[in-house]
Amino acid sequence: MMATFTVRVARKWREADRVHAFELRDPDGAALPAFSAGAHVDVHLPGGLVRQYSLCNDPHETARYVIAVLLQEGAGSRAMHALEEGALVTIGGPRNHFGLDAGARRSLLVAGGIGITPLLAMAERLNRLDRHFALHYCVRSAGAAAFARSLREAPYAHCVQVHADDGPVSQRLDLAALLAGACANTHLYVCGPAGFIAMVREAALAHGIAAGRIHSEHFANAGPIADVSSFDVRLANSGRTIAVPAGQSVVDCLAAHGVAIPVSCRQGVCGSCLTTVLEGEPDHQDCYLTETERALGDRFLPCCSRSRTPLLVLDL
User: Fold this and answer.
1) A GO molecular-function term, please (predicted)?
2) pLDDT of res. 16
3) What number of CA atoms fall less than 13 Å from residue 247's CA on the CB side?
4) Residue 74 CB partners (closer than 8 Å, separation 6+)
5) Of 8, 71, 168, 192, which is most buried by a Cβ count within 10 Å?
6) CA pair distance 189, 267, nearest whole angstrom
7) SS3 240
8) Helix, strand, or coil here: 108?
């Protein structure tokens, strides 16, 4: 299991409509573990909830983490919004499944809604490195634009455009024109709702940006997970074969038989439970692995994915 530690909510503020930001610091003033642009932390909340939130401050900073949380229907965001300044919170160390290629000559950052959070850290990093980049931030309304003031006052403000659905037509995102003007060696980073990511990704591919240069991060699985199939799982190290019934995840089934796999989001988003497949064909239902990684068929996320074959042999 990943090591955890305690931080204090040093500051909490309303950043936009239904969005609160939190500044987390070590209770004793010590430096926090370093993080890279695109990283997130697991936040452990009351009731056993664990949620992932992107770090959105400058990775050069060592004294604090900043996260921002959109209030949604889920219990996690409600629990976060209920936290008050001074509260002590347990978090996991920074992890990064959405890494920035800081050596790229050109980078295009496209955010939808709360998807702005990891891209803020990327913009800070690219600016420090004096790299060529542009940040396009799409929101439903001007009031929903988190960190809008910070972006207006940033030293890279000339690289930023905010596109509000309720604003003049002239300022709305013209994705086709934006991508048509992108160079072939541009790296594209997109974060936001699943539908937004899919739209940007498809448009980028249609405009000749190679799949390997398109990077995305989801905050939740794109849709309901199908768990109607039953199959067997064999543990290579012991030879045990365990039947996984319909309606139960591989993670939960194995746990019931005394085999624990580290798990966090349970939605196929964070990658905590990534497991090696030795035989069989996974039925991928995550949004963590890339299409290339899925095609290899040698790893899967047992919190949500299942099997297309009667048997999966796992390196456990």
Assistant:
1) metal ion binding
2) 96
3) 0
4) none
5) 192
6) 21
7) coil
8) strand
Q: What domains appear along the chain, each with residue ranges and CATH number?
A: 4-92 (2.40.30.10), 106-217 (3.40.50.80), 231-314 (3.10.20.30)
> What token pair was written down for 265?
């989001």
Contact call for residues 307 and 229 (beta carbons, < 8 A) = yes
DSSP state of 31: P
Give the DSSP per-residue string, 77-93.
HHHHHH--TT-EEEEEP
The first and second tokens of residue 57, run together, are: 């401050």
What single string gives the DSSP state of each residue in 139-155?
ESSGGG-TTHHHHHHST
Only one residue has tokens 């991060």, namely 217
3-state DSSP assignment of residue 95? strand
Based on C-alpha coordinates, what's the Rg of the chain? 21
Nearest CA-CA partner of 205 in 243, 248, 176:
176
3-class secondary-structure state, position 69: strand
The total number of residues shown for the chain amounts to: 316
Whole-model pTM over 0.85: no
Single out the residue of 135, 25, 31 nearest to residue 91, CA to CA.
25
